[in-house]
Amino acid sequence: MTPDTYLANPANPATHAIPVPVTRGRHGDAGAAARAAAVLEREGRVALAGPWGAGKTTALEEVLRTLSSGPGSGPGRTVLRVTTVEEDRDHVFGALAQMLSHCGAAQLAVLSGRQNEVVDRILHRGADEPLAASEQLPARLAVTALLASGRWMLAVDGAQWLDPASADVLGYALRTLAAPGLTALVTERVHGRAQAAARLLGGHPVQVDVDPLDAEGTAALLDAHGLPTRWAGPLQSHCGGHPLLTSVSCTALARMPASQRHRPAMAEQTVDAAGAWLHATLGEPARHTLMLAALTSRPSLPLLLRAGRSDAEEHLARAQAAGILSVDGASAVHFTAAALARAAARSGARPLRAAAHLTLARAVGDPVHEVRHRALAADLPDQGLAEDTETAAATAREAGERSLAAELFLLAAEITPPARSALRIRRLSYAAQEAACAGSVDIARQAADALTAGRAEPTDQVTALLAVVDAHGQAVSDLEPLLARCRELGAGHPGLLAAVELRAAIAANVAHAAPERALRAAGRAAELAAAGGHRPLQAAALTMRARMERVLGTADAPGTLAEALALGIPAQHSGIRNSAQYLAARHAVFDDRLAEARERLLELLALAEHEGDAEDLVDIWRSLAEVDTRLGACAPALAWADQAVRLSTGAGLSMGPAWYTAALTQSAAGSFAAALRTASCGARASQEEGDGLYVSRNLWVLGAVQLHTGDVADAVASLTAVAEAERHVPAADPGMFRWQPDAVEAFTCAGRLDLARALLERAGPARGRAGADSGPGAALDRARGILLARGGAVEEASGLLHRTAAAFERLGLPLEQARTLLALGRVERARRRQAAARAAWEAARAVFDETGARPWQELTRELLDRAGGPAPATGPAPGAGRLTESESRLADLICQGATNQQAAQHMFISVKTVEGMLSRVYRKLGVRSRTQLAAARAAAAPGRDGRTPPE
Predict the structure, then answer these.
(1) In terms of pTM, does the model score above 0.85?
(2) Distances (CA, A) of 657 to 353, 355, 741
(3) CB-based contacts of 533, cutoff 8 Å, min separation 6
(4) Residue 349 falls in which region: left (phi positive, over 0), alpha (psi -120 to 50) or beta
(5) What is the pLDDT of residues 435-468, one digit of tens each?
(6) In whole angstroms, what is the distance from residue 721 CA to residue 693 CA?
(7) What is the number of other CB atoms lying within 10 angstroms of the CB of residue 18?
(8) Residue 378 contacts residue 415 (beta carbons within 8 Å)
(9) Per-residue DSSP letter, 877
(10) What single-letter DSSP state applies at residue 11?
(11) CB neighbours of 458 closer than 8 A, spacing ≥ 6?
């Protein structure tokens, strides 16, 4: 659970419908099909590659549908489809027989009598002997003559299983006959370069990889199954973005009763599907090697060799080619999905696994992991081994390996003799505490259940139950029964009750729209901790109290924070993200003391990298992304946010906060389209977790980007939901959640001037506390200037916006300065001062160019183009480079096969707007169809030709 969340909002702000994109994110077979279709139309030959279950067949079928409906297929083109399975490799001319069976008598009539005899023998027709493998020459001549007689497309699904005789004949025909007379689309099951397809197509054909799903694509697939999108992180970890594994998981999870849908465990069906992947691609010796790799925490090639797997290098190479794992430069082995590791570990029976653990114990060379393997091999209680395992767990804890420590403490408890109950309880308590730090709900729950069943003392039971609460991260809305049980067990114990009240404060803030309640609970926690003489807990409670005081705008926050800092508790004691030191950095962020904030955060980051956990790192990275975004350091901001998303995904943390930060940075430095998609996913995930705070934050970014891209009605809807939620937060500090200026601007653009004025008036007291010459104050001034202009006071608005831009410059907030210059330019244009408008926009463009704020660069260039102003110095690139960002995004969606309706839903605009924008795209690129558009996009930009997938 992360208490560094400030504005307590309702769990479901208003009744706002939170959209989730209809596409599958940046990757998947839809994008591969569009790229392959474009390459095929341009070059006539393409290879589609991907591991088992990646969606190659789906992509191939989509390509065939796309081309059959577009002008590129041409009149009279016939598709000859060959689909192979593993057994086909042993059937001489089996693939040719399948292909020729699709040809009718009229098509075969172009062949000579001798060539038709060859066809009959390939098809096993007539009395003659079937064609032998040695008779490839007559087969070459007959098939080439047939394929030269018209316009054909050869579609081979599974080049890796073509029988050698068929592969020779088809390869000869493809080398002999050039496209576009004979075009070819060939798939191959491979992770990396498609060798069989390359041999068949000849030369160096363009290869299009069917990429895995990203976290947003996984979220969209979850939503399509009616499942919580907040599960995207765990599911991404389970399945590694593999389309088939993800689909199997979604289907299995959708069948679960709603009452059990709290946190997605890895479905058995997913493990079974992963096992099928292993069996389909690897032999038994290689699977045994992978079992050893999966059973150890740190698999590597040297370890496997020491464990007696002399063919380990060959086995790993095969597994890597199949997309099952990767081997890095240090020879460490990484499974591409947790389900694959679990399936590999289960590939042997219990006795075989126990023997493997003993083998690994001798080979591993690390005392902690040696003990782990000996403990996992044990079938009976063993006091000596239990003591060794506890010692190893303590060593792992000191090294910051909290997940490993939790597992080892739990193992130690499991093999502790029944007569040593006190030792067993202690080990279970340690396991729960370490699981909480690692975010491992399963281990925390196992330990808590074992302590309850063993009738442990209240202290131990409360400690374990609170560990379960902590392991749930932001998903705290349904944990009140656990807290109530903790209060019962902790009655009369001030230290225990202080710990319970601290969690209650966090839950009240995050999930229950009750900052005052959170403040009271934090105050009780601080008093109880002080009474119990528990200084670290007292510091944590005071830190939480300071948070809530800041939320509520009281003057006590600095003093309370100073009191917490004065206790001298190291930041890493109870989690860096919960520390007074981290809160001090956050307050510097809120106050726009950005240089100070960055310095403090980098110091904490160095500490977190050595002694923190995943949540510590994620929160610090997110804060650094926010700081760098405001400073105009766009590239670092994107990198910090990306790290936070990737670690949140891999560690199974709540995705709402990470997606919020990613959307915020994308809206400044990446692309508006990506920001819309990410904020939408973040809002939905937070809503499902009952995390009202991040529902509002994601909706704020969503509404702001909708405003920037001209979708004013949707912006008003999103920001109205935020405004409704914020009615429950009296006198909130505007530096912590800066939604009001965007809401005022959206209401103004929509003509709702009454709402805009009311919101400005309501924000007045908070603005007064922040100061006129502050980031929040200047942003409200910009909104007031826009409102003035809409009301006809354009000269007053111009003066105010001039002063506001200067204020942002003094504050060192370049993106806000440039955004104000854009607003100023619009006001000057309304005053018919075109030169002044262009000057403001040129000044804005210079700032955006210097900071690398890509979506704002595009927006400014579009304004200058419409005003007849000079183009950017670099000039537009040919083809797709002439498109605006919105037009480019629409072109991408259309190339991926989206209908106008789907594109409208994805971009959050009307179908009519899509139709008009698509007409402009066609006109700019000189195309008249979707197929021609795909070809033009592929030809225009590096990375869109299938050789390098687009970002």
Answers:
(1) no
(2) 40, 44, 22
(3) none
(4) beta
(5) 887 778 889 889 988 988 888 888 888 888 888 8
(6) 12
(7) 23
(8) yes
(9) P
(10) S
(11) 489, 490, 493, 496
